[in-house]
């Protein structure tokens, strides 16, 4: 019995380490407006320029928000993250269209 205990402990430790490493989830990357409200990802790819020549017009600013709390649902708020991706972190986005959403790769890898 002692012999099997010496083999089992390192095997369990190696398995646990492999599972923890493999299960590392991507953090969220969402396109948001200047108020931290989630908008469609396609807006983050547009040039940031005013669409109106009216005096006092303030253009919308769309940029990616990395990590933090919130979700991918349009119109929801985000917080606790950053507008700058952290080195060594992995981020993912949701692509909308077709028959649903899909989780994809983002920046920061």
TrEMBL record:
It comes from the Bacteria. Keywords: Signal. The keyword Signal applies. The keyword Signal applies. Residues 1-18 form the signal peptide. This is DUF3300 domain-containing protein. It comes from Terriglobus albidus.
